[in-house]
Amino acid sequence: MTSLENLSPTEMPELLIVEDETAIRELVAFVCESEGFRVNRAEDIASARAALAASRPDLILLDWMLPDMSGLDWLKELRSDRAWSSIPVIMLTARGAEADRVCGLETGADDYIVKPFLPRELVARIRTQLRRRPSPNEAEDGAERRAEPRETAVVCGPIRIDESKFEVAIDGKPVRLSVKEFKLLKLFAEKPGRVFSRAQLLESVWQTAFVDERTVDVHMLRLRKILAGTSAEDFVETVRGVGYRAKDYGS
């Protein structure tokens, strides 16, 4: 994990701001650059794609309503492309209805900020998403570990999860999950029988305290619907007043 305070200007995380309104785009850029972040700007999805191809950002700040394509639709593309799916994305939009927040988070946004925003809060949320950014030494160690063949599958009862391929199968049949649903299922499968509070799930899967705990319930409902009709339909159960836990097939 990298401490941003110890980084030189050239080592600071690079942000890509995708916003069509010039005044807002420049305000966000000013706030971020004042904190030392390196910033690239894009006014639409076409220029965002060009910026992404030229330089991989450490985080994307993405507006929803853009002139050539919905930011939400581009987010879907990013999350379905293995080359870009791991880049943290914060939606920064005027659409503040609860349904819009849930839709953005379900699509794969790591956080959701409604305009107008407080500059200090924006910076805090950016730092939260970057907190687990590996240091150069950690990145090198990770590259060495990835170069070594290893078993990446997690098996729990009829469920098999292959993190390296982003694949889930139940009784050998593939199951399609969103990024957050995948992370939730993997967390439960790795620690069957353990009770997780909603706050713990937010910290582990969303890695932020800024998302409402109701978001967890929405994703758990979607996960249960996906598991329904399979041999793992009772895999996750609600622990009333506490949170959720997964069935321990070994007990």
UniProtKB/TrEMBL annotation:
UniProt keyword annotations, A-Z: DNA-binding, Phosphoprotein, Transcription, Transcription regulation, Two-component regulatory system
Domain Response regulatory: residue ranges: 14-130
Residue(s) carrying 4-aspartylphosphate: D63
Family matches, as SMART domains: REC, Trans_reg_C
Gene Ontology MF: a single term: transcription cis-regulatory region binding
OmpR/PhoB-type domain boundaries: 151-248
GO cellular component: cytosol; protein-DNA complex
One protein family per Pfam: Response_reg
DNA-binding region(s), residue ranges: 151-248
Superkingdom classification of source: Bacteria
Gene Ontology biological process terms in this record: regulation of DNA-templated transcription
Record-linked InterPro entries: CheY-like_superfamily, OmpR/PhoB-type_DNA-bd, Sig_transdc_resp-reg_C-effctor, Sig_transdc_resp-reg_receiver, WalR-like, WH-like_DNA-bd_sf
Function: This protein is a positive regulator for the phosphate regulon. Transcription of this operon is positively regulated by PhoB and PhoR when phosphate is limited.
Protein name (database record): Phosphate regulon transcriptional regulatory protein PhoB
Highest classification ranks of the organism: Bacteria, Pseudomonadati, Pseudomonadota, Betaproteobacteria, Burkholderiales
Name of encoding gene: phoR1
